[in-house]
Design goal:
163 residues; binds copper (II) ion; 10-stranded mixed β-sheet; mainly beta; 1 helix
Length: 163
């Protein structure tokens, strides 16, 4: 077992090194309209990117995640169009203070739901482009262990909007 004392980066590396034998993707019924690109069984709802009060400061991405599928995987990392980088954060107590820290990859199997929400698990977007403006949208890509990706659209909200 990994211990929490390992650095998140090292732990992530060990998790990624676990061999995963992926079932070949099977294309089933012909797709009529453009499908949400991604992993079968993943549902993302209520995705929103909340900008910082000061332009250029980190923004926070929240959404509801659900998975119904055969293959277990780890939610590993995110990219957000218009942000230079993104990182999963969790709040935890450190040095007698509650503060944000990098989250380890999150194991997911059929029936898992995750709530990325204020004050809890979230994705932090760094290097946010001024082109990301309230009432616009941006494209988010979630990458999981094994390399599959799932893309979805997030609404952009101003700092003062409802989160
Ligand atoms: Cu954060």
């Amino acid at each position: 077992m990994l211990t929490r004392r390992r650095s998140p980066i090292l732990a992530a590396g060990l998790v990624l090194a676990t061999p995963l034998f992926l079932a070949a993707c099977s294309e089933e019924a012909p797709v009529v309209e453009e499908a949400e690109a991604g992993i079968a069984g993943v549902t993302i709802e209520n995705a929103r990117l909340v900008l910082a009060p000061v332009e250029g400061n980190p923004a926070a991405l929240y959404f509801d995640f659900a998975y119904e599928g055969d293959r277990a995987f780890n939610v590993d990392r995110f990219t957000i169009e218009g942000a230079e980088s993104a990182m999963m954060h969790q709040y935890g107590e450190y040095d007698f203070k509650v503060q944000m820290m990098e989250a380890l990859p999150i194991p997911v199997s059929s029936g898992t739901t995750l709530e990325f929400k204020p004050g809890d698990l979230h994705v932090m977007a760094m290097g946010v482009s001024p082109e990301l403006q309230p009432e616009g949208t941006t494209e988010v890509t979630m990458k999981v262990s094994g390399g599959d990706t799932h893309s979805f659209t997030a609404e952009i909200r101003a700092a003062g909007d409802e989160r």
